[in-house]
Every structure is written in structure tokens, then in C-alpha cells.
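C-alpha cells for chain A. Residues wanted.
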């Protein structure tokens, strides 16, 4: 007996019908085709004709491509793997004997390139950053192993950090973890406490175990012990923001408040410091983390109130602006403001499509909107198809 296939046209018709909150009988009543035929198509017993597909799309008020599977789906899992594969190879070859024939740029030029890639990630130009990383990692590895210098090791550590960020945003967590290991290896050789602390910050966010996450944050603070530069203060503040995120996962409101306040005090001392290691640290980042923590703790009314009081300046990093819009959309969805939530998701997509598409909260919000909307609009169904829900 045929079984339904979610990747077939019949499976897509069934999925979109359910999203529209219609039974097979209700949908068939809107078609110039029989209930029996629709049932057979959905269960895989018969192929869907072009005419049936067009009629279903018209009845559901959706694009035909959502039923045929030809919707725009750039960077699906296989394509994301193609983007990160050269990065993975570069990380795997970190200890290979250097190629003596490899032409290299001056270390200062490569350090500038590493900083530029980090900036591209913050601007959510992920494909641009990903395409530059393999050669940059190879060049810096060659220089670090043949003519080691603090500047070279520091630039290599920064490049590994960017590799981690790209891999994480594209949902390759194993590669992100590997990149952090390499970052620690290079930061140790650079004798750079700030880079070592940033690594601990990123490690802390990757663990769901809150106790372990806080231990990693503390390890970052220990690395900065005795450091009083503006750079070190900004990194320490970011560590506190990381701790607030970890505490929020544990529903530790007192812990969240304590770390947010510590970060706020450091932000008052550093002033806007978003270009320091491209962490985006400053008073705005503190407020964004406070709002994000409220969402994690399911304090949606509080989060929405904070969101409405925030004004994101044009100078804010693109990644920060997009994350804010997605967080606000989730708070709005959870408080019953479906139309406004979808509007902010669409805005986030326009601001930073690559980042917005893969943020877990984007998918959570879209699923929530589909669940709570009786008749999903074409705009919502297109958004759902775009994020793969």
C-alpha cells in the first residue's frame, strides 16, 4: 500500500492544506476535482497532475512552487556543506608541514584581512567571509609555522574565531567546535589573554549545561586577571553578557540581573566599543542581551516592553539589528501580535537574509505563527518555505 512522502508533491499538498487548517473534504470542495482523487494524491497512490497542483495552489492562495518543490531554497543543508567544506579542510590541515613554495602576503596585510573577515561576519556577509577564510587560514598557518610572530598567531586566532562564527551561523556545530579548538591553540601561542577569553565566552554559549557554561565564563575572567585596558574591559563585559545568557537558560533571574548589571557598569567605563574584536560591546548590546534573556526565560511581556523602548541606531552592526528584529518578532508572536511579528521577521530577512534564515528563533517564531494562525497568509507560507519549516 502506498505511503505518504513529505517530499513528494502529494506530501507538500497535505502539508500546505494542514497549514491552512483544512480537512481533505474542505479542500476538495474548493477544487474542480474529486475528494477521492485528492486523497489518492496525498497518500501517494496517484501522481498529481499540473492542473490539480495549479487548482490547489489557487485554492490555498499560495505559490505553485511551494507544491512543486521549486521554491527559492538557496543554501539548503547540502549547499551549506559546500560553503563550509573548504573551511573544514583548512582547519584539518593546521599541523601539516608548510608549503615552502606558497606565496604569502606580509603579516600586517593578512592581519588586516583577518579583521576584515571578522567585520564581514558581523555584517552578515557569510558567503563572502566563508570564501575568503580557507586561503587566509592557509597563508597565516604557513607564516605562523615558518616565521612565528605574535602578530601572526593573533591574526590566525582571529581567523579561526571567524571560521567558528560562520560555521555556527550555518548550523555546522561540529566544525564550529573544531574552529574553537584551533583558536585556543593559536591564542596560546600569541600569548593574547583577550583572544583566549573570547574563546571561553564562545565555548560557554555552546553548552546547554548552565553550570559548565558559567565555569567557562569564569575561566575567561581568570584569563583577564590583572588586565585593565579598554580592550580587556570590553571583553570582560562581553563575558558577563555571555553569563547572562547562560543564567537565562537556567531560569536564574537573579543571575541574569547580576551579570547584566556588571556588564552595564563596564559599558559605562568603555563607552561604545563595538569595533573591539567586533564583539559589539556597549550599552546597546547590554540592553539587547537583557531583552534576549527575558525571552529565554519566557517573560514575553517584559521582553516586548524592552523592545519597544529600544531604538537601534543606523551605526549598529547588521547582525545586532537582525537579531533584535527576530527577538522582537518572537515576543510579539508569544503575546498574540501575529501580524506585527511577521512584519518584523520580513524586515529582519531584508536586513540580513543569511543570518535571519538560520537563527533558531526565526524558525520557532514561524512555527508559532503557523500554529496560531487559522488561515496563514501567502506572506507567512512563503516565509515558512524560506526557513524550511
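Reply:
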Amino acid at each position: 500500500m502506498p505511503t505518504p512522502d513529505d517530499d513528494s508533491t502529494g506530501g507538500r499538498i497535505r502539508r500546505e492544506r494542514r497549514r491552512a487548517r483544512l480537512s481533505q473534504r474542505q479542500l476538495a470542495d474548493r477544487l474542480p476535482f474529486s475528494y477521492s482523487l485528492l486523497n489518492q494524491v496525498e497518500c501517494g497512490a496517484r501522481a498529481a497532475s499540473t492542473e490539480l497542483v495549479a487548482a490547489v495552489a489557487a485554492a490555498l492562495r499560495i505559490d505553485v512552487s511551494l507544491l512543486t518543490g521549486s521554491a527559492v531554497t538557496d543554501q539548503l543543508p547540502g549547499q551549506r556543506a559546500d560553503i563550509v567544506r573548504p573551511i573544514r579542510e583548512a582547519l584539518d590541515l593546521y599541523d601539516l608541514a608548510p608549503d615552502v613554495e606558497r606565496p604569502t602576503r606580509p603579516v600586517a596585510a593578512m592581519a588586516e584581512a583577518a579583521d576584515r573577515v571578522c567585520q564581514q561576519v558581523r555584517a552578515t556577509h557569510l558567503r563572502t567571509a566563508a570564501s575568503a577564510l580557507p586561503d587566509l587560514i592557509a597563508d597565516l598557518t604557513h607564516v605562523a609555522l615558518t616565521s612565528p610572530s605574535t602578530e601572526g598567531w593573533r591574526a590566525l586566532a582571529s581567523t579561526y574565531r571567524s571560521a567558528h562564527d560562520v560555521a555556527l551561523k550555518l548550523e555546522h556545530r561540529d566544525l564550529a567546535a573544531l574552529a574553537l579548538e584551533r583558536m585556543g591553540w593559536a591564542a596560546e601561542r600569541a600569548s593574547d589573554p583577550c583572544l583566549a577569553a573570547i574563546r571561553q565566552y564562545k565555548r560557554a554559549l555552546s553548552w546547554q549545561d548552565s553550570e559548565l557554561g558559567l565555569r567557562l565564563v569564569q575561566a575567561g575572567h581568570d584569563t583577564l586577571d590583572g588586565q585593565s585596558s579598554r580592550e580587556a574591559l570590553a571583553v570582560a563585559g562581553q563575558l558577563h553578557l555571555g553569563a547572562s545568557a547562560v543564567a537565562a537558560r537556567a531560569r536564574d533571574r537573579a543571575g541574569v540581573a547580576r551579570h547584566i548589571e556588571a556588564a552595564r557598569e563596564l559599558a559605562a567605563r568603555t563607552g561604545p566599543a563595538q569595533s573591539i574584536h567586533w564583539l559589539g560591546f556597549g550599552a546597546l548590546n547590554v540592553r539587547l542581551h537583557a531583552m534576549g534573556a527575558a525571552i529565554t526565560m519566557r517573560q514575553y511581556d517584559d521582553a516586548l516592553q524592552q523592545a519597544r523602548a529600544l531604538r537601534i541606531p543606523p551605526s549598529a552592526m547588521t547582525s545586532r539589528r537582525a537579531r533584535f528584529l527576530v527577538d522582537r518578532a518572537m515576543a510579539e508572536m508569544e503575546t498574540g501580535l501575529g501580524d506585527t511579528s511577521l512584519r518584523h521577521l520580513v524586515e529582519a530577512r531584508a536586513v540580513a537574509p543569511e543570518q535571519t534564515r538560520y537563527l533558531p528563533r526565526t524558525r520557532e517564531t514561524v512555527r508559532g505563527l503557523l500554529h496560531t494562525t487559522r488561515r496563514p497568509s501567502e506572506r507567512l507560507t512563503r516565509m515558512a518555505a524560506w526557513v524550511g519549516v
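The CA atoms of residues 100 and 297 lie 54 Å apart. The chain has a mean pLDDT of 88.
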